[in-house]
TrEMBL record:
GO terms for molecular function: DNA binding; excinuclease ABC activity. This is Excinuclease ABC subunit C. Keywords: DNA damage, DNA repair. Residues 2-107 form the UvrC family homology region profile domain. Pfam families: HHH_2, UvrC_RNaseH_dom. GO terms for cellular component: excinuclease repair complex. GO terms for biological process: DNA repair.
Amino acid sequence: MLDELAAVLGLEVAPKTIESYDISNWGDGTSVCGMVVFENGRPKKSGYRRFKIKTVGGTDDYASMSEALFRRAARYDAGEEGQFGIKPSVILLDGGKGQVSVVKAALANTGLADVPLFGMVKDDHHRTRAIVTSDGGEIALSMHRTSFTFVSSIQDEVHRFSIEYQRQNQKKKAYASSLTAIPGVGPATAKALMAAFKTVSNVRAADLASLEGAKGVNKRVAAAVYAYFHSDTTLDKEP
Protein backbone atom coordinates (compact mmCIF):
# COMPACT_ATOMS: atom_id res chain seq x y z
CA MET A 1 0.00 0.00 0.00
CA LEU A 2 2.65 2.54 1.02
CA ASP A 3 4.91 1.49 -1.84
CA GLU A 4 2.09 2.13 -4.30
CA LEU A 5 1.35 5.50 -2.72
CA ALA A 6 5.03 6.44 -2.97
CA ALA A 7 4.98 5.57 -6.67
CA VAL A 8 1.78 7.56 -7.24
CA LEU A 9 3.17 10.62 -5.44
CA GLY A 10 6.62 10.33 -6.96
CA LEU A 11 8.38 9.71 -3.66
CA GLU A 12 11.71 7.91 -3.48
CA VAL A 13 10.71 5.84 -0.45
CA ALA A 14 7.44 4.74 1.13
CA PRO A 15 6.14 7.38 3.58
CA LYS A 16 6.46 6.15 7.16
CA THR A 17 4.76 9.10 8.85
CA ILE A 18 1.91 10.98 7.19
CA GLU A 19 0.37 14.07 8.75
CA SER A 20 -2.96 15.39 7.51
CA TYR A 21 -4.74 18.66 8.29
CA ASP A 22 -8.29 19.97 7.94
CA ILE A 23 -9.99 23.24 8.91
CA SER A 24 -13.43 23.29 10.52
CA ASN A 25 -15.41 26.54 10.72
CA TRP A 26 -18.40 27.59 12.78
CA GLY A 27 -21.11 30.15 12.13
CA ASP A 28 -19.72 32.54 14.72
CA GLY A 29 -16.51 32.92 12.72
CA THR A 30 -14.32 30.68 14.88
CA SER A 31 -12.14 28.04 13.26
CA VAL A 32 -10.05 25.09 14.38
CA CYS A 33 -7.61 22.78 12.65
CA GLY A 34 -7.35 19.06 13.20
CA MET A 35 -4.09 17.17 12.66
CA VAL A 36 -4.09 13.39 12.33
CA VAL A 37 -1.10 11.09 11.97
CA PHE A 38 -0.77 7.81 10.11
CA GLU A 39 2.33 5.77 10.88
CA ASN A 40 3.22 2.76 8.75
CA GLY A 41 -0.22 2.99 7.18
CA ARG A 42 -2.22 3.00 10.41
CA PRO A 43 -3.73 5.82 12.51
CA LYS A 44 -1.46 6.92 15.35
CA LYS A 45 -4.03 8.52 17.63
CA SER A 46 -1.48 9.42 20.28
CA GLY A 47 -0.02 11.79 17.69
CA TYR A 48 -3.26 13.60 16.86
CA ARG A 49 -3.17 17.32 17.66
CA ARG A 50 -5.59 20.25 17.62
CA PHE A 51 -5.14 23.94 16.85
CA LYS A 52 -7.45 26.79 17.77
CA ILE A 53 -7.02 29.41 15.07
CA LYS A 54 -5.95 32.62 16.80
CA THR A 55 -4.99 35.21 14.20
CA VAL A 56 -7.71 34.85 11.56
CA GLY A 57 -10.94 36.81 11.82
CA GLY A 58 -13.99 35.22 10.25
CA THR A 59 -13.98 32.28 7.88
CA ASP A 60 -10.80 32.01 5.82
CA ASP A 61 -9.67 28.44 5.20
CA TYR A 62 -6.48 29.50 3.46
CA ALA A 63 -5.27 31.80 6.23
CA SER A 64 -6.35 29.33 8.91
CA MET A 65 -4.47 26.46 7.29
CA SER A 66 -1.42 28.67 6.88
CA GLU A 67 -1.47 29.63 10.56
CA ALA A 68 -1.86 26.05 11.77
CA LEU A 69 1.00 24.69 9.66
CA PHE A 70 3.28 27.58 10.53
CA ARG A 71 2.68 26.94 14.22
CA ARG A 72 3.29 23.23 13.73
CA ALA A 73 6.62 23.96 12.01
CA ALA A 74 7.59 26.39 14.76
CA ARG A 75 7.11 23.63 17.34
CA TYR A 76 9.39 21.36 15.32
CA ASP A 77 12.00 24.09 14.91
CA ALA A 78 11.89 24.75 18.66
CA GLY A 79 13.03 21.17 19.25
CA GLU A 80 9.92 19.97 21.04
CA GLU A 81 9.64 16.34 22.01
CA GLY A 82 6.71 14.11 21.12
CA GLN A 83 4.83 14.27 17.84
CA PHE A 84 5.84 17.85 17.09
CA GLY A 85 9.46 16.77 17.25
CA ILE A 86 8.98 14.22 14.47
CA LYS A 87 9.50 15.30 10.88
CA PRO A 88 6.72 13.78 8.77
CA SER A 89 7.43 11.95 5.54
CA VAL A 90 4.46 13.60 3.82
CA ILE A 91 1.90 16.31 4.62
CA LEU A 92 -1.62 15.94 3.20
CA LEU A 93 -3.99 18.91 3.34
CA ASP A 94 -7.75 18.71 3.01
CA GLY A 95 -8.09 21.12 0.11
CA GLY A 96 -6.79 22.03 -3.30
CA LYS A 97 -4.36 24.40 -4.97
CA GLY A 98 -5.15 27.33 -2.70
CA GLN A 99 -4.42 25.46 0.52
CA VAL A 100 -1.26 23.89 -0.90
CA SER A 101 0.01 27.25 -2.12
CA VAL A 102 -0.44 29.13 1.16
CA VAL A 103 0.99 26.29 3.25
CA LYS A 104 3.99 25.99 0.96
CA ALA A 105 4.68 29.67 1.59
CA ALA A 106 4.10 29.29 5.34
CA LEU A 107 6.60 26.43 5.60
CA ALA A 108 9.30 28.16 3.58
CA ASN A 109 12.40 28.79 5.69
CA THR A 110 11.25 26.31 8.34
CA GLY A 111 12.52 22.85 9.13
CA LEU A 112 9.52 21.36 7.33
CA ALA A 113 10.06 23.22 4.06
CA ASP A 114 11.38 20.11 2.32
CA VAL A 115 8.57 17.78 3.41
CA PRO A 116 6.54 16.65 0.37
CA LEU A 117 3.25 18.58 0.44
CA PHE A 118 -0.02 17.60 -1.24
CA GLY A 119 -3.69 18.49 -1.20
CA MET A 120 -6.67 16.12 -1.27
CA VAL A 121 -9.64 17.21 -3.38
CA LYS A 122 -13.12 15.70 -3.55
CA ASP A 123 -15.63 15.34 -6.36
CA ASP A 124 -19.22 16.63 -6.38
CA HIS A 125 -20.26 13.59 -4.34
CA HIS A 126 -17.72 14.39 -1.59
CA ARG A 127 -15.50 11.46 -2.50
CA THR A 128 -11.74 11.82 -2.74
CA ARG A 129 -10.98 12.50 -6.40
CA ALA A 130 -7.35 13.51 -6.78
CA ILE A 131 -4.11 14.62 -5.16
CA VAL A 132 -2.89 18.17 -5.76
CA THR A 133 0.87 18.57 -6.01
CA SER A 134 2.94 21.43 -4.64
CA ASP A 135 3.23 22.94 -8.13
CA GLY A 136 -0.55 22.93 -8.64
CA GLY A 137 -0.83 19.79 -10.76
CA GLU A 138 -3.27 16.96 -10.12
CA ILE A 139 -2.75 13.22 -9.76
CA ALA A 140 -5.90 11.20 -10.43
CA LEU A 141 -6.48 8.33 -8.02
CA SER A 142 -9.15 6.42 -9.91
CA MET A 143 -6.60 4.08 -11.49
CA HIS A 144 -4.88 3.34 -8.19
CA ARG A 145 -7.48 1.58 -6.08
CA THR A 146 -5.29 0.85 -3.05
CA SER A 147 -3.99 4.41 -2.85
CA PHE A 148 -7.49 5.78 -3.46
CA THR A 149 -8.87 3.80 -0.53
CA PHE A 150 -6.00 4.75 1.77
CA VAL A 151 -6.02 8.47 0.96
CA SER A 152 -9.82 8.52 1.29
CA SER A 153 -9.53 7.01 4.76
CA ILE A 154 -7.03 9.70 5.77
CA GLN A 155 -9.23 12.48 4.41
CA ASP A 156 -12.29 11.09 6.17
CA GLU A 157 -10.41 10.71 9.45
CA VAL A 158 -8.97 14.22 9.53
CA HIS A 159 -12.37 15.64 8.60
CA ARG A 160 -14.03 13.69 11.41
CA PHE A 161 -11.40 14.75 13.92
CA SER A 162 -11.53 18.46 13.09
CA ILE A 163 -15.34 18.57 13.17
CA GLU A 164 -15.38 16.71 16.48
CA TYR A 165 -13.00 19.29 17.96
CA GLN A 166 -15.11 22.19 16.69
CA ARG A 167 -18.25 20.67 18.19
CA GLN A 168 -16.53 20.20 21.53
CA ASN A 169 -15.53 23.87 21.53
CA GLN A 170 -19.05 24.99 20.71
CA LYS A 171 -20.46 22.77 23.44
CA LYS A 172 -18.12 24.34 25.99
CA LYS A 173 -19.16 27.80 24.82
CA ALA A 174 -22.82 26.88 25.22
CA TYR A 175 -22.24 25.63 28.75
CA ALA A 176 -20.22 28.73 29.64
CA SER A 177 -22.95 31.00 28.28
CA SER A 178 -25.51 29.22 30.48
CA LEU A 179 -23.46 30.23 33.52
CA THR A 180 -23.85 33.90 32.61
CA ALA A 181 -27.50 33.55 33.65
CA ILE A 182 -26.19 33.70 37.23
CA PRO A 183 -26.25 37.27 38.59
CA GLY A 184 -22.72 38.65 38.75
CA VAL A 185 -21.23 36.07 36.37
CA GLY A 186 -19.98 37.54 33.11
CA PRO A 187 -18.26 35.82 30.18
CA ALA A 188 -14.80 36.03 31.78
CA THR A 189 -15.97 34.47 35.05
CA ALA A 190 -17.96 31.81 33.20
CA LYS A 191 -14.82 30.93 31.26
CA ALA A 192 -12.84 30.75 34.51
CA LEU A 193 -15.42 28.43 36.05
CA MET A 194 -15.38 26.14 33.03
CA ALA A 195 -11.58 26.11 33.08
CA ALA A 196 -11.58 25.12 36.74
CA PHE A 197 -14.45 22.62 36.78
CA LYS A 198 -14.73 21.51 33.11
CA THR A 199 -18.53 21.07 33.11
CA VAL A 200 -21.59 22.90 34.44
CA SER A 201 -22.47 19.76 36.41
CA ASN A 202 -19.16 20.02 38.26
CA VAL A 203 -19.77 23.71 38.97
CA ARG A 204 -23.20 22.80 40.34
CA ALA A 205 -21.72 20.08 42.58
CA ALA A 206 -18.84 22.20 43.90
CA ASP A 207 -18.89 23.36 47.50
CA LEU A 208 -18.37 26.99 48.42
CA ALA A 209 -14.71 26.54 49.35
CA SER A 210 -13.94 24.98 45.98
CA LEU A 211 -15.70 27.80 44.15
CA GLU A 212 -13.79 30.40 46.16
CA GLY A 213 -10.54 28.63 45.35
CA ALA A 214 -11.09 28.70 41.60
CA LYS A 215 -8.72 31.00 39.73
CA GLY A 216 -10.50 34.11 38.46
CA VAL A 217 -13.50 33.74 40.80
CA ASN A 218 -13.78 36.11 43.76
CA LYS A 219 -15.62 35.30 46.99
CA ARG A 220 -18.66 37.41 46.14
CA VAL A 221 -19.18 35.67 42.82
CA ALA A 222 -18.45 32.27 44.37
CA ALA A 223 -21.20 32.89 46.91
CA ALA A 224 -23.60 33.93 44.15
CA VAL A 225 -22.85 30.80 42.14
CA TYR A 226 -23.25 28.55 45.16
CA ALA A 227 -26.53 30.22 46.13
CA TYR A 228 -27.83 29.96 42.58
CA PHE A 229 -27.34 26.21 42.41
CA HIS A 230 -28.64 25.59 45.90
CA SER A 231 -31.84 27.56 45.63
CA ASP A 232 -35.09 26.67 43.90
CA THR A 233 -33.88 28.32 40.68
CA THR A 234 -31.28 26.22 38.88
CA LEU A 235 -29.97 25.80 35.40
CA ASP A 236 -31.25 22.98 33.28
CA LYS A 237 -29.10 19.94 33.77
CA GLU A 238 -26.23 19.51 31.36
CA PRO A 239 -26.83 16.61 28.97
